[in-house]
Amino acid sequence: MKKKKILAMFLAIAMAASMAACGGSSEPASGGASESGETAAPGEEKLSSRDTLNMASKSEPTSLDPAQTKDLVTWMFMYNVSDPLLYFNWETQEYEGAVATDWEISDDGLEYTFTIRDGIKFHNGDTMTVDDVVFSLNRAIASAFTAQTNTCIDHFEKAGDNQVKAVLKYAYAPFLEIMTNPAYAIVSQRAVEECEAAGRDFGREPVGCGAYKLKSWQSGNKLEFERFDDYYRGQPKMKYINWTIITDASAGAMALESGEIDYYYGLAKSDIPHLMELPNLQYKLDDRGFGLYDITFNTTDGPFTDVNLRKAVAYAINREEILQGGADGYGTVDNCWCATGCTGYLPDFEWYEQDLDKARECLAAAGYPDGIDIVFTQDSSDTYMAPAEVMQAQLAQVGINVTFEKLQRSVWIDTVSGNRDFVASLRMTNHVVNDAEYLLRRRLTTDMLGGGNNYSGYQNPEFDALVEQSATETDPEKRNEIFRQCYEMIKEDVPVIPLYTGTNPIIINSKVRGWTFHPLERNVWANAYLVE
What we know:
Pfam families: SBP_bac_5 (PF00496). Strands 1-6-7-9-8 form a five-stranded antiparallel sheet. A five-stranded mixed sheet has the order 10-11-12-3-13, with helices on one face. A four-stranded antiparallel sheet has the order 16-20-15-19. It is an alpha+beta fold. It is built from 15 helices and 23 strands. The protein is globular. Helix 8 runs antiparallel to helix 10 (356-365) and helix 13 packs antiparallel against helix 14.
């Protein structure tokens, strides 16, 4: 059996190479009147008498049932209600045991055996058993909500009084990352079955093993969480965490500035520079992230079936200007089609630089020496329209005249992602799994054509084979070389154009200590506390 230390060594090498090459340190930038997230010993600063963290979000969770969740907002809440087998520590870039204490990997990579921590309590007072773990994990992979992450998993089974075995359909190098996903958090089997038998929604009365338990939920208004004193990692420092729903981002910013709340999720970019300068707030900003903005072409129907026209767009745009003008500079230009925070991002890879003469040459080679009119089908949100309008002005310089079909989010998903009824679109995709293979497979392999995945229609058997190889190769250097070959093919065929990885600072009351940072808002609040 391969011990976890061997895989951890591989991961550490890969992460260290990625971080060093990105030019970013392991410490995110911080500002305001105090260093962000600095954990002071309780004896060094006077503790606040306040026992409640007051948080707010632009929207509320869809459910607090792990198996019924897949969006980042919901996971932000879920990460403190119930724990998965593992955590990924963003600061150290290492996997840490959560519900599991240890793990082993079979030589063929098809079986992972996890040792379950003794004595973990659920919020209802029950002691967790291996049966609860097996039940939770098999329930997760049976759910449609985990379809993006469960394809490699066959089943989970009991492997002794304190062990659970994951049996895979095929070896999958990033499997441990899936085991950090909140959708795979462990819940009480008894509580789930009692809710189902009574016709109640477990997602509204969850029984997990996390640091906080749900006290009340007023839809559209507030969620209140109470400290779980029997939390297996130690009693959380704050007694309560209250989340208020503030749908207006400007109102959320004002509440944060005034001290009415300690944190707000969903800040408008226009409010961020002002808030970052306030002495009563602190922030963390990392140049690594998981949200990749790109231009996706329909390569099977319409004018962008011609690679010359796709290359014309690649040469015509200035991606740094799109980042600055469309996202106020909050992000990092991507040199390859992978978000900057992911394993497999290669910062030394070179993408097309703006060259208007070459853009015009490619335009002529595509049969449009006098230019062409193009419709971009867009999500109407300013998140996408702002960078798209910068792109529009740049393309006009070479005669590519862009107009927009603006759609509401749900309609855009059906039109572009579902039905592939579009010519081109500027959009963003989050790496749900912290690995380049995830997005390469989901968005560009032949097997994923349609169904909301590969909507560019790109089909390349050689590319498909490389992605398959990347899924099973565990050597970090060999994996990066495979990814490099994939990026070279994308650069040559241009089914997509990587633009930038979006990043936003996390801004919080300067009196909060002990909180942990994660760019996907998987922030753990168990060790957070307030000082005077």
